[in-house]
Specification:
Helices cover 27% and strands 28% of the residues. It is α+β, with helices and mostly antiparallel strands. The strands form eight sheets. Strands 19-28-27-26-22-25 form a six-stranded mixed beta sheet. It has a four-stranded antiparallel beta sheet with strand order 1-8-6-3, with no helix packed on it. The chain is globular, with a radius of gyration of 29 Å.
Length: 532
């Protein structure tokens, strides 16, 4: 008897999965325990084994496509078995009834047919949508196209580099054919599920796909920013016009990204020499441009008359940071607690540790360790607001803010309370480098229970930080400063450091936050208590 295999929930935060690869095709025999597919979750790509035996009768999700947890992933049964009743009983038949059952196909075609009843079945081309490459991604920017219109594309080849809110990632095509259309220019953005590209047979009338995109009841129409619709018979000419401009009466062939960079750097286009195909100006030509004396003089005269400005497009990462921090600041009622700490013993302890060969720790490492130990004593601070409940975490996972060009990333030191100081130091250094190289993975920044932001290395003595949701608190660490202090009745030079705890008042009260800071202060003023 045929049985449904549902999209599994392979991580605690997983809501949907992508079939990265099928290891069995329809008609293949599958044994219990055999590898069925590779499933990409919100944290990693994992192998998924079948827990049933039989023939693979139906694949509910194509390679590269996404499906929600518990939707139909596959159906196993006996060869030739009727599975139409299983497909009809599913809550989302439009995305799962593909090609095995004629009755279901007929029903789905009626649902998804364009309102004008345009027949698209004869068009041998497929739309590739802007992918959702991270759990928080709502739109993507095409950093670069690796294929141009007219190029042959094979499944698995890199089609484009997509800049998400967290990183720039390579996007592979899951279709074979010719690249007929690019829906988003280099440097431009489009919402998730907008038309990214169309791949198919040369000469296909793909314009009908564009004209009818989003016209069905089951597909939401999302149009990419700055996308211009063009007719099929004039598309190549229009693309050519989009990739070139007229300057001083002469046509200049230039890529959109190079044009954008030249405009940002105020470089006259007629002074650029193209090294691309057919003399086309590309990105490297702009980057390698050396201004002539005449162009410098012209620029100087212009700047004396006109106020020069520069508009920089906002990256996906900064957009997401802005959105999350705005939600945090305007939703969570923040209050702040500041404490001044004697750092003499911390300085002495760090000096002693760093005297050990091949060992080097920072003050920030000591702060992380002391905070983790204090969180273990005050679990109420290691919590999150969930609306009807407050979640208190058993693990102490400390997020450490790292500055990158586009803003801040917060990689996580997991179980920081159980780790040695040298281990914490090595992890933080590694995360910082990965963040700067845009190579952090989702599992690196997810799951923090508390966060630390340290601006002491920039000479900032005191500041407040915005809580990193879903954390209830974030600690802002200032610089160590020397000032006169009274010790044993005498005025001496002491080393002091201020830290400010930002608290979500829905979770942490003033007394709880104060007790946490007092414990943190005790640990940092007596480092031996956390180094044992």
């Amino acid at each position: 008897m045929a049985e449904i295999i549902k999209m599994p929930k392979l991580s605690d935060t997983m809501e949907e999965g992508v079939v990265a690869q099928w290891h069995k095709k329809v008609g293949d025999k599958v044994d219990d325990g055999e590898l069925l597919a590779d499933i990409e979750t919100d944290k990693a790509t994992m192998e998924f084994e079948s827990f049933q035996s039989g023939v693979l009768l139906h694949q509910g999700v194509n390679e590269g496509e996404t499906a929600k947890v518990d939707s139909i992933l596959a159906i196993l049964g006996e060869k030739g078995e009727d599975i139409s009743h299983l497909l009809n009983g599913n809550s989302s038949p439009s995305s799962e009834a593909k090609n095995e059952v004629k009755a279901v196909n007929s029903s789905e075609e009626k649902k998804s047919a364009p309102s004008e009843s345009v027949d698209l079945s004869a068009i041998n081309a497929k739309i590739i949508k802007m992918p959702k490459l991270s759990d928080t991604m709502t739109e993507g920017t095409v950093a670069s196209w690796q294929k141009k219109v007219g190029d042959k594309v094979e499944s698995g080849e890199i089609l484009a580099e997509i800049e998400t809110d967290k990183a720039t990632m390579e996007f592979e095509s899951f279709e074979d054919g010719e690249l007929l259309y690019q829906g988003v220019k280099e440097g431009d953005s489009a919402e998730v599920d907008a038309i990214l590209a169309i791949v198919g047979e040369k000469g296909s009338d793909y314009q009908k796909l564009i004209d009818n995109f989003g016209s069905s009841d089951t597909e939401k129409e999302v149009v990419p920013k700055s996308e211009a619709k063009v007719s099929a018979n004039t598309n190549n000419e229009a693309v050519s016009r989009a990739e070139s401009i007229v300057d001083s009466g002469d046509r200049i062939k230039i890529s959109p990204l190079a044009k954008k960079l030249a405009k940002e750097q105020n470089i006259p286009l007629n002074q650029l020499k193209g090294s691309g195909e057919g003399g086309r100006i590309v990105k490297r030509d702009v980057e390698n441009f050396t201004p002539t004396s005449s162009s410098s003089a012209s620029s100087s005269i212009s700047s004396s008359v006109t106020l020069e400005t520069k508009e920089t497009p906002v990256s996906q990462m900064r957009k997401t940071i802005a959105k999350r921090l705005s939600e945090s600041k305007f939703t969570a009622p923040h209050f702040y607690l500041t404490i001044d700490i004697d750092m003499d013993e911390a300085i002495a302890s760090r000096k002693a540790i760093n005297s050990i060969p091949d060992t080097k720790v920072s003050f920030n490492d000591l702060v992380i360790k002391a905070a983790a130990a204090a969180l273990k004593k005050h679990p109420a601070v290691n919590s999150s607001w969930l609306g009807d409940t407050i979640k208190t975490y058993q693990e102490v996972n400390v997020g450490v803010a790292v500055a990158v060009d586009e803003g801040l990333l917060v990689p996580v030191v997991r179980n920081a309370d159980t780790k040695q100081l040298t281990t914490i130091s090595a992890e933080v250094k590694n995360y910082a480098q990965l963040a700067r190289d845009k190579k952090l993975q989702p599992q690196d920044w997810e799951g923090s229970t508390f966060s630390i932001s340290n601006l002491g290395m920039f000479g900032i003595e005191e500041f407040t930080a915005i809580i990193n949701p879903p954390n209830a608190c974030i600690m802002a660490v200032g610089a160590i400063r020397q000032e006169p202090v009274v010790k044993d009745g005498e005025i001496v030079i002491g080393n002091r450091m201020k830290v400010t705890l930002s608290c979500d008042h829905r979770v942490v009260d003033g007394a709880v936050g104060s007790q946490f800071l007092e414990t943190f202060k005790t640990y940092l003023q007596n480092p031996v208590t956390i180094l044992a």
